[in-house]
Amino acid sequence: MGSINASVDLRRDGEVAVVTTDNPPVNALKHEVRAGLVEALRQAREDGAVKAVVIGCAGRTFFAGADITEFGQPPRPPSLHDVIAAVEGMPKPVVAALHGTALGGGFEVALACHFRIAVPGARVGLPEVKLGLLPGAGGTQRLPRLVGPEKALRMIVTGEPIGAAEAQVLGVVDDIAEGDLTSAGVTFARRVVAEGRPLSLVRERDEKLSAEGFADAAETLTQRLRGQDAPAACVEAVRNAIVLPFEEGLRRESELFRRLVAGDQSKARRHVFFAEREAARIGDMPETTKPRPIGRGAVIGAGTMGGGIAMCFANAGIPVSVVDTRRDLLQRGLDRIAANYRTTVSRGGLAADEMERRMARIAGGTELDAVAQADVVVEAVFEEMDVKKQVFGELDRLAKKDALLATNTSTLDVDEIARATGRPRDVLGMHFFSPANVMRLLEIVRGQETSFDALATAVALGRRLGKVPVTVGVCYGFVGNRMLARRSAETERLLLEGALPQRIDAAVVAFGFPMGPCAMMDLAGLDVGWRIRQGRGERAVIEDALCEAGHYGQKTGKGYFRYDAGSRTPLPDPEVEKLILESSSRLGINRRPIAEEEIVERMILPMINEGARLLEEGIASRPGDIDVIWVYGYGWPVWRGGPMYYADRLGLARVRDKLTDYAGRSGDPALRPAPLIARLAAEGRGFGS
Ligand code: CAA
């Protein structure tokens, strides 16, 4: 009894042994934890005075899973299977006491216990699919036995956890613990002993193992996950739970896990998992920097963007004022917010009373003085420098001291905007992506004078709003849109050289994006870029011609594609085809068929090249930051790891040679390999090195 090792502790409370793991921050099941658990269980088993065991964790959560940093390293026994065998081999009742997030291998350990109790706020789930894996420690065999295959499949393929209340209804947890969890666990264990309750193991149960509804659920759940290995493996494993004996199902699960964990898709997803967390760090920020408290927000501008940003605040429980000086626009904005919430309620995504609570957090006003109470102000007015500067001048006068002043500009110079105030250290960009209440990316634009605590505040606020914040430097388009501009330029060229919108989009969708560049432009509105180009004296042959012909995208029912009334399905448009062919012939271009492989390369390599330049200029701090931006802001397929990660997989020498070739053919100097690519390729290295 006592300390087993640095992570695991064993003590006795009367006849109950309490095994507690403390491995901050999330009690991942690293080697030392597994070894400690096996040893603690051995001691508890051999101690005649022990009649039952409670397994729990200190800190913020029960085991949140296997230690992901150990994947890809040689296995070190005892394995998670050994821990589970020690639990299941225990001739005395074992109770798992759950709090926080019992995920992956952590939940699988709990599933092997005889009983499970949880605090009301606990969540349990098998999120391995999000790492390109399947649950590898029996989860695909035990969960179907506990909740039925259809429900288990739903949880495993989506990776979404469930709350304690639902877990109790499903029979996953036996009791909800009020008050202190460990005491509740001990009390529960004593009751089991006193009542002589039988020690049933999940593996021995089969009353819910029915194939009913399974095939349909498998079909609908995986429909939109084409190209991904893990969901298909999850389906196979859960089906095995129905048709194979337990041990055989377990053996197949291990095989599938080993194959996935060594595969490219899981490696890519693990890269994104860590890159996402790394992106929240700002390299030169002193560790002592503390974010400022945020109790109230204000959003200037009640347009689509402003409304979406206000919803983010309300959803996160932060009261927010929306200010628009024009009463009609304000009302329209507030109506749009209410309509958005109503849609979510009608689809079952939100309870009606929760919608009321969220709406009640949003106050509308036409006077800028409303910002005086706000700890953060996000400006989302018209994308024009003079307008923005005027707003920031006013904010300087009205906002309280130490308020964070953020602009949601997507193109303008944040430093110039900051200079319109007497407090540039409080000013930065918070670049949300449309629709702001849905898209998870948040580019935090660091100005020359932005202070560390302002940055720390923006990052912390971003996470509170459920976003993935990535800090970037000031330049035209920042990271995401500057790279996107390269893709758009290449789309134009492909259209002129011989490809049609439907062909380009199909190639990009086949690569794994949810939509192609042309459908995306139709969604965003072609006129936006057109106006910006007019202001900058730039031209895009096809896109401008489309705008001149009234093709603004979905909002006008026609863009690169045409749309039937009320529909969002892009349909090939003969009128557009004609316009493209005429443009080619006007420029004397002989159109040719372009292979899918070439389309994909030309959609992706110019972006990678621009990404390299952004790294050279220090606008992006890490290649992983760029990957996170593209995964969360632009739908880059997460199982391909992001553009910079993908470039490393291709090999930078190949990237360099292809770019050199395309630069020569097109005559576009922007396509010449960035010096960083040339240097790394010559050294045989990648961005990740
Ligand atoms: N292994 C190693 N490190 C982990 C980890 C894990 N399973 N889960 C989280 N961490 C680390 C994070 O990298 C982060 O590290 P830094 O502070 O150094 O950046 C730290 O723990 C805190 O994580 P978050 O910032 O994500 O904290 P949070 O409170 O926002 O979220 C969480 C906590 C919900 C547990 C979230 O971290 C999470 O979802 N983790 C992954 C859970 C998971 O996928 N588990 C399954 C693992 S695979 C498995 O178990 C396979 C199997 O069947 C054998």
Keywords:
689 residues, alpha/beta, 2-enoyl-CoA Hydratase, Chain A, domain 1, Rossmann fold, N-(1-d-carboxylethyl)-l-norvaline Dehydrogenase, domain 2, 4 domains, 8-stranded mixed beta sheet, 28 helices, 18 strands, globular, binds acetoacetyl-coenzyme A
Written account of the structure:
This protein has 689 residues and is an alpha/beta fold. It folds into 4 domains: 8-261, Alpha-Beta Complex (2-enoyl-CoA Hydratase, Chain A, domain 1); 297-472, Rossmann fold, CATH 3.40.50.720; 482-586, N-(1-d-carboxylethyl)-l-norvaline Dehydrogenase, domain 2; 596-682, N-(1-d-carboxylethyl)-l-norvaline Dehydrogenase, domain 2 (Orthogonal Bundle), CATH 1.10.1040.10. It is 49% helix and 11% strand. The chain has 28 helices and 18 strands. The chain has an 8-stranded mixed β-sheet, with helices on both faces. Strands 1-2-3-4-5-7-10 form a 7-stranded mixed β-sheet, sandwiched between helices. It is globular and about 90 Å long. The mean pLDDT is 96. Acetoacetyl-coenzyme A (CAA) binds at residues 25-26, 28, 64-69, 80, 101, 103-105, 108, 127-128, 131, 133, 135-137, 277.
